[in-house]
Amino acid sequence: MSSKECNALRGIAIMSILLHNFCHDLPGAVPENEFEYRAENYMQFWSSVFHSDFFIQIFSYWGHLGVPVFVFLSGYGLVKKYDTQTNVGWVNFLFSHFKKLFIPLTIATIVINIILRITMKHWVESWGHFWLQTTMLLNLSTTPTTHIPGAYWYFGMALQLYALYRLLVYNHSSKLIIIALVICETIMITLDHESQTLVWMNHNAFGWLLPFSIGILAARHCPKHTIPLTILGGGISCFRFIYHRRLIHLLFMATHSRDYYYHRS
User: Fold this and answer.
1) What is the pLDDT of residues 47-86, one digit of tens each?
2) Distance between start and end Cα atoms, the chain
3) Tell me: the pLDDT tens digits for 119-175?
4) Under the phi-then-psi rule, with left for phi > 0, alpha for psi from -120 to 50, and beta for the rest, what region is 28?
5) I need a labelling partner for 38 at 20 to 30 A (CA). Which of 83, 173, 175, 234 fits?
6) Residue-wise DSSP of 59-82
């Protein structure tokens, strides 16, 4: 893909994520199933999407699918930038990417804390939590969900993916990242769809290896093919849809929908 195509995809992903984070806080918006799957959220989406604000419900529930597009572009871009370079040292590689993420994350965290202090009269829950978030270590805690609104968890996950690229991809064949993907997928498929372990994995790199690996493989093995943006963007979202085991969850929903409506009535 050309840089223009990558920037176009990046712009679409940013718009989708921004609208998602805006819409899902609006009154009456359907909760998403981004890190875990709750059948009641899925049922609520289909029962309300055509009877209330259509676009608000669409972006509230599905807008987070811009994230796998970003992850795909990360894998694609890392291969294009570093695969042809020699002597990419661990320290310089990780520090440069840490600095690139740390500066905007710290500024955004400070700004949102000031806003919370002015509007809601409180700071972040603890300064320990603040430093864990700005150093991108919060994702590794047993409760990675942030108390500051926004997609700040992405920064820690992205840093982990950079480390995985340097460990498993740079100067290696694609086999290692594929093996890691198969292991993670096997583990995640065996977990309960509301498991806290699944939530933890989806806040970390383990839950995003599929679009990351697709980006790596596309950059290495399809370098001369230009894929139409609509097909690529839709394809990545569909991969994330399948990857998050939505097909399994649809079967779950179909077999439990009668009980769900029975308990609601």
Assistant:
1) 777 777 888 888 887 778 888 888 888 998 999 999 988 8
2) 52
3) 766 555 567 777 888 888 888 876 666 555 567 888 999 999 999 999 999 988 889
4) left
5) 234
6) HHHHGGGHHHHHHHHHHHHHHHHH
**Are the C-beta atoms of residues 162 and 94 closer than 8 Å to each other?**
yes
Q: Which residue type is seen at 117?
A: R
Tokens describing residue 179: 């093996």
Distances (CA, A) of 102 to 23, 99, 135: 27, 5, 7
In 83-190, alpha helices (H)? 90-120, 127-134, 153-164, 175-190
Q: How far apart are CA 158 and CA 131, in angstroms?
A: 17
Pull the structure tokens for residue 183. Answer: 């292991």
Q: Report the amino acid identity of residue 125.
A: E
* Side-chain half-sphere exposure of 187, counting CA atoms within 13 A: 14
What residue type is 3 in one-letter code? Answer: S
51 vs 29: CA distance, rounded Å: 12
CB contact set of 104 (below 8 Å; sequence gap of 6+):
none
Closest C-alpha among 179, 228, 243, 216 to residue 77: 216
